[in-house]
Amino acid sequence: MSSPHDSVPAVSDHGGSVPATQEPIPDPGLHKHTWRPTDVDDRLAKRAERQIAAMFVLSMLCAVLFVVAYFTLEIGDSFDTVGYLGASTVALGLSLAGALLFIGVGVIQWARKLMSDVEISEPRHPAKSSDADRAATLQSLDLGAKDSGIGRRPLIRNTMLGAVGLLGLPALVVLRDLGPLPGDRLARTIWQPGMRLVRDVLGTPVKPSDMEVGDLINAAPEALFPTEENGYEEIEGVELNVEKAKGAIIIVRMEPGDIVSTQGDNWSVDGIVSFSKICTHVGCPISLYERTTHHVLCPCHQSTFDLADSAKVVFGPAARPLPQLPLAVNEDGYLIAQSDFTEPIGASYWEREKES
User: Fold this and answer.
1) Residue among 342, 336, 339, 338 at smallest CA distance from 222
2) What is the pTM of this model?
3) What distance in Å separates the CA atoms of residue 95 and residue 253, rounded to the nearest whole number?
4) CB under 8 Å to 204, separation ≥6 — which residues?
5) How far apart are CA 206 and CA 202, in angstroms?
6) Which of 15, 43, 63, 130 has the fewest CB atoms lying closer than 10 Å?
7) Cα-flanking dihedrals φ and ψ of residue 190, to 5°?
């Protein structure tokens, strides 16, 4: 039986055959070819084909199990295992690892047992390929497709395509974990009617008498500083950080006559106005205040807002004014919010309409 290597010619720089004496490196020759069992026994080849297809089917099952585990196991579910890992973590890790592993094992077995077992040598081409080179490349690709047997082995081809296709499901599911959809999460904050404005570090409430004209205070919702007195429930972890970021505000006091307009009627108190601290360009925190012009500057990209005129953009790339928090004073004399922001806070990188 002759080896497939006996019919492989030497390849020149231009895709044609040349005598061995013109090769840049003398042909060292090849050892006598040893045929694999699957090369000479069609029964073994069929068995290998079924084994490889089984690997791809197992990969598909693991991908489906990943999706099932993602939606059925809650974070925090646990069972006794090494390191007390949660059931969700273990199930997601093992199923995704299996989906990738079985594809890799199947491809390796396919290459080792069924693809053509030949060696081809080819000197380097010039940087610019000629028409003959392109034709030779297409011929080589066609030869490679034939050698792989992908056309003659539809079982392997179809199961491999199914495994690779289903592997996209875990990727899509995991992408959803990058965070909430911005339109849903940023449309509401923790601010509620009657909630006091407090200093963002100390958590102490603010009275109008505490502020002089020209003052700026970085503030936050009182609900982020729960006590027995105010009765708010404690928020922890990621949710606390999210609400801190969304609810951050600046409070500024100016002469009442300097206020040109506000985003709503009766939203200021004796020249005191409050706006979201989150820039409407890409969401950077702002607080660089110029008291004589009532302009506040974002340090990231220099968007500038006029707080005396509804925080309208007077310079920079921001697309809309800072959302304003409507203010009032409670019976104890503290500044409170009349309501939540009436429009979504944050960057303006998706379509939104101002809510009534």
Assistant:
1) 336
2) 0.53
3) 58
4) 198
5) 11
6) 43
7) -80, -10
- HEC string of 118-158 equals CCCCCCCCCCCCCHHHHHHHHHHHHHHHHHHCCCCCHHHHH
Of 111-125, 187-201, 244-258, 288-302, give the lowest mean pLDDT range: 111-125
Q: In this predicted model, what pLDDT tens digit does every residue of 241-254 receive, in sequence order?
A: 888 888 999 999 99
| Distance of alpha carbon 191 from alpha carbon 248, whole angstroms | 10
Q: Which among 301, 310, 200, 330 has a CA at the least distance from the CA of 264? A: 310
CA dist 273 and 307 (Å) reads: 8
Q: How far apart are CA 213 and CA 333, in angstroms?
A: 18
Domains assigned to the chain: 4-181 (no CATH), 183-337 (2.102.10.10)
Task: Measure the CA–CA gap between 75 and 238, rounded to whole angstroms.
Answer: 14
